[in-house]
Amino acid sequence: MAKVYVFDHPLIQHKITYIRDKNTGTKEFRELVDEVATLMMFEITRDMPLEEVDVETPVRVAKSNVLAGKKLGIVPILRAGIGMVDGILNLIPAAKVGHVGLYRDPKTLLPVEYYVKLPPDVENRDFIVVDPMLATGGSAVAAIDSLKKRGAKHIKFMCLIAAPEGVEAMQKAHPDVDMFIAGLDEKLDEKGYIVPGLGDAGDRLFGTK
What we know:
This protein is α/β, with parallel strands linked by helices. The chain has a single domain (about 5-205), classed as Rossmann fold (3-Layer(aba) Sandwich), CATH 3.40.50.2020. Helix content is about 30%, strand content about 35%. The protein contains 6 helices and 13 strands. β9 (about 135), α4 (about 140-150) and β10 (about 155-160) form a beta-alpha-beta unit. It is globular.
């Protein structure tokens, strides 16, 4: 079963409070999402493998560590996931960025894939799929389906706010994908919005309605 990590770091919880606040404007909202994504990424990468190398300091040659192992890929779910990418690249600028675009079919209400662009070496990368919200879980499940169909084998999911219903849907569909969440909320309302949530993340990031 997939593990669920809910971050309790004081800085993350502090910033999530202002992200939730309806009076936080677009500019500050974007900056806060960036900052929280950076802080979450710091924790998510804690188990990345290292290898020892020699480095010449101004004093002498020293043994030190650099990242080893598989390369990293970041995959935002369009459109709101884009708002988290820069915060991640602040820490790991060499990461490749793919994209998955989904829309909801008005009749079936199921997610439909309309765009997928991934790095060419999919099988050799560790992927982190990012989206600010995990509500019903439909989009996240479909996005990870898309990656797996194309050969991805090592995937994590990162979001700011999640509903228990979305977490459950992800665990059922993708029990091998660990989830990293800044805030686990109470429930979904009758319209499928997370309660208390933060509203529509895409609209708040891009100033649309």
